[in-house]
Amino acid sequence: SRAIKIAPSILSADFANFGAECRAIEDQGADWVHVDVMDGHFVPNLTFGPAMCAAIRPHIRGVMDVHLMIAPVDAYIEAYAAAGADIITAHLEAGPHIHRTLQAIRHTGKKAGLALNPGTGIDAVAHVLDMVDLICVMTVNPGFGGQKFIHSQVDKVRSLRAMIGDRPIHIEIDGGVTVETAPLVAAAGADVLVAGSAVFKGGSVGDPAPYGANIAAI
Ligand code: DX5
Ligand code: ZN
């Protein structure tokens, strides 16, 4: 298994064929499946409720990585855990009580992730390092696939990796990951790369062959 994991975001998949799309990306080299949950409030877009996550769960053999872009978030954590998430990531900016939110995620027995928007510094992360399995560095402003990578985040990733030291915490990059930007964040210390448009471009359920080449290229 490679050192860098690729987690395709199904936000860029065919919404009428999630089961087939999940099977296709896993068959073609995806390490995790990334599910972007948006509430039309924390971010200006709406996507998947817990029922949708539960429906796609049987079509994912490996890790279902659920990124909650919702506020408030605590009341929904149980529902996404019950829907079969393996990792539940909440945003630092989604409420005043990230410590409580991370406790709530850990309480479900799922792995806990903490996401940071591009404008958010890493200082607060220092105080919850013992509570997280993953830190997601947003390299676009969350809400939509296909946006341009924000280069100022590369230094942030490097600082975060130094802060984490040898703790077993993943650094996940989310947004604008392409063949060009992936090496920059990998060199800075990221080990999980979310990619939506870069994985699903050129493919379809009927002809999913490009996914494997797209994943391998990243
Ligand atoms: C953005 C989402 C990302 C997004 C990535 O709010 O969290 O996962 O779908 O899409 P690309 O790779 O197209 O930037
Ligand atoms: Zn995401």
Automatic annotation (TrEMBL):
InterPro entries assigned to the protein according to its UniProt record, in alphabetical order: Aldolase_TIM, Ribul_P_3_epim, Ribul_P_3_epim-like, RibuloseP-bd_barrel
A GO MF label? D-ribulose-phosphate 3-epimerase activity
UniProt remark on cofactor binding? Binds 1 divalent metal cation per subunit.
Q: Could you list this entry's UniProt keywords, alphabetically sorted.
A: Carbohydrate metabolism, Isomerase, Metal-binding
Q: What is its EC number?
A: 5.1.3.1
Broad class of enzyme this protein falls into: isomerase
Binding sites annotated in the UniProt record for a divalent metal cation: H34, D36, H67, D174
State the SUPFAM superfamilies in the record. Ribulose-phoshate binding barrel
Names of the cofactor(s): Mn(2+); a divalent metal cation; Zn(2+); Co(2+)
Which residues are substrate-binding? Answer: S9, H67, G143, F144, G145, G146, D174, G175, G176, G196, S197
Q: Where is the active site?
A: D36, D174
Give the CDD domains listed for this entry: RPE
Pathway connected to this protein: Carbohydrate degradation
Reaction(s) catalysed by this chain's protein: D-ribulose 5-phosphate = D-xylulose 5-phosphate
Question: What protein family is recorded?
Answer: Belongs to the ribulose-phosphate 3-epimerase family.
Question: What is its biological role?
Answer: Catalyzes the reversible epimerization of D-ribulose 5-phosphate to D-xylulose 5-phosphate.
**UniProt protein name:** Ribulose-phosphate 3-epimerase
Q: What gene does the UniProt entry assign to this protein?
A: rpe
